Amino acid sequence: MKRLPSLLAAAVALSLTASAPGVIILGSGDPNANDTEFNPPSGALTNSGLQWVGRLYDTGAAVISPNHFISAEHLGIGDGPHPFVFQGVTYMTNGSFKVPGADLRVWRISGTFPTWAPLFSSPGAELGRHLVVFGAGTRRGAAYSFGGTQRGWLWGDIDGRLRWGENKVASLLDIGGFGQQIYGTFDAGSAGLGYHECHLSNRDSGGPVFIREGGVWKVAAVNFSVDGYFAEAATGGDFFIGAFTDCSGLYSDDGSGNRDFIPGPAPVPTGFYSTRISAYLNDIRTYIGNTDLRPTTFATWQSACFTATQLANASLSGPSADPDGDGLTNLEEFAFGSAPWMPSAESAPSLGTLNISGSDYLTVSYNRVAGLTGVTYVVEASSDLQTWQSGSGVTTLVSETPQAELVRVVVRDQTPVGGGRRYLRVRVSSP
User: Fold this and answer.
1) Phi, psi of 299 (to 5 degrees)
2) Tens of pLDDT along 259-290?
3) DSSP letter at 263?
């Protein structure tokens, strides 16, 4: 899996001083593919973080407060002043903060950003999560084959375009001297995410990674490094680097000129490393203040999920709207921790039964986002779908189980199923 000896070499390869500089995707080598200008995330990935990405020189960075943005420390960009371009406006930095123990630096700007991203705040909950990543690295280069099969692609030309891709967090790593990382692998076939499955390359450093938490896309990591370099033999031949869905049978550089054989069984994908935000949240907030956009109210949730133009259109962003057509209104998506642009009917309350002393009782299970204000959940019971009742004597709380940013709630009816037809529903309301 992780090839630590390659890490230092990869860190150099991703630095601004390396010989080549976005994101390499599995499905296409077209320079316009996943270009944020021509083909931004859409559909289920609408507003999945691009609205908070700016450019610090030729690298990506994420806006995280009215006056701050975050990127990678190893870029070597100090306090400034430096130009930072966000939504077509250039802001100048007037100070920065190196996050202790991490490859993270936060810059302060003169002026005020119109919007900013929330920060992922559940340490360890990144594992296994779907992510969207942005970077301004190389194009996908020439196909690379070894042992008679194509293994992936070498890095291509520098073009400085901001691109995006998808992956999932395969593991969480503590890399001494470089801090806490998420690790994503470049998987083909059923192990990956298909067309938009991605890898990183040189100059993707500093680009942000977004993961959904409580139904909202949040900055979860900042791009740091990739696996590499590789060789085809134990001795002789040049080292090379690329995005490979399988590097088994090759040799990896251990950082000191030695070569380590990479055994199978195939496939052994290469991967990328990004520094976790949640591991350093207290230090970041000490510098920026507690101003990151946390969607504890419906209004702040709307601001995190919709652009200014969309907020002006109640048919998209209003509490009763359903822009993804999954049957959940925006207010319900907010309350149950799902996303308004990603069909998620599975996030709706689900029914079951619970046997107590030989009698079956109808149950309803639903997600409640921890820390929300201004929203009420009421479980109601009915025998005819016309008259609904709630409260003491009608339903009973069975359990509340914390699950990262969510609480899984189970409530049961107090009338046995055998007594006739019974129905349960969860009604969500806001003042």
Assistant:
1) -65, -45
2) 999 998 989 999 999 999 999 999 999 999 87
3) -
To which H or E segment does residue 168 belong? strand 163-168
CA angle 354, 358, 361 (to 5 degrees): 30
Instruction: Determine the 3-state secondary structure of 193 from DSSP.
Output: coil
Q: How far apart are CA 113 and CA 92, in angstroms?
A: 12
Domain boundaries, the chain: 5-288, 298-347, 350-429
The DSSP annotation for 97-153 comes to EEPTTSS-EEEEESS--S----B---TTTTTT-EEEEEE--PPEEEEEEETTEEEEE
Residues in a beta bridge with 59? 56
Q: Which of 393, 363, 395, 396 is nearest to 380 (CA)?
A: 395
Tokens standing for residue 261: 């054989």
- Fold of the domain built from segment(s) 5-288: Thrombin, subunit H (2.40.10)
Closest CA to 122 of 279, 274, 300: 279
Pick from 69, 71, 73, 72: which is nearest to 90 by CA?
Answer: 69
Nearest to 102 by CA among 285, 370, 281: 281
DSSP of 202-248: TT-TT-EEEEEETTEEEEEEEEEEE---EESSSSSS--B-EEES--T
Rounded CA separation 160/143 (Å): 21
- Tokens 């609480």 sit on residue: 407
Distance CA 420, CA 423 (A): 10
351/188 Cα distance (integer angstroms): 36
Q: Are strands 24-25 and 198-199 parallel, antiparallel or unpaired?
A: antiparallel
Give, as one character, the DSSP assignment of residue 267.
P
What is the dotted CATH code of the domain comprising 350-429?
Answer: 2.60.40
Tokens 């001795």 locate to 235
pLDDT tens digit string along 152-209?
999 998 888 899 999 999 999 998 888 999 999 999 999 999 999 999 998 899 999 9
